[in-house]
Write a structure and sequence with these properties.
Largest sheet: none
Helix content: over 70%
Radius of gyration: 25 Å
Shape: rod-shaped
Number of strands: 0
Order of helices and strands: HHHH
Oligomer: single chain
Strand content: under 5%
Structural class: mainly alpha
């Protein structure tokens, strides 16, 4: 699957495959970073959509006013006004999506910060020890805690 997101540390194939099933520290941090980046891209796209729909709604409203002045058949003027209303609805809904994407971005960053502060010291210690560590999830399956 291809996307237009920038490269994110911890998300390339070598890191993902080196942690087995993707439960490793870097793989999870990378997936959360990708989620936050995706939310930002969505937010940006929704801002663009909103301004585009607002401009189109304003243009449709202006057109309906001109049609009214030109005494165009009222049902056609009414249809144009309905289009303007629908475009305004799309603009408002895209604003709701901006708010949702902002929440996802904020929550992902908060999770990533908590994850970093909780698990980075252990990750660094285990990598610096020179001792091969068990695969992620091993201690959970054996009932032991690390």
């Amino acid at each position: 699957m291809s996307d237009n997101l920038p490269a994110i540390p911890g998300m390339n194939n070598t890191v993902a495959s080196s942690v087995g099933s993707g439960l490793g520290f870097l793989a999870l941090a990378g997936r959360i970073a990708k989620l936050a980046a995706s939310a930002l891209f969505l937010k940006e796209g929704m801002h663009l959509l909103r301004s585009h729909m607002e401009a189109n709604s304003t243009a449709a409203l202006r057109l309906s006013e001109m049609c009214g002045q030109a005494e165009v058949e009222p049902r056609f003027t009414s249809m144009i006004e309905d289009v303007s209303t629908a475009l305004t609805g799309v603009a408002e809904a895209s604003g709701d999506m901006v708010n949702a994407a902002d929440s996802v971005d904020t929550d992902a960053r908060g999770f990533n910060n908590a994850h970093e502060s909780e698990y980075r010291p252990g990750y660094e210690a285990s990598n610096g020890s020179g001792v091969q560590q068990a695969k992620p999830g091993f201690y959970r399956r054996t009932g032991r805690r690390s």
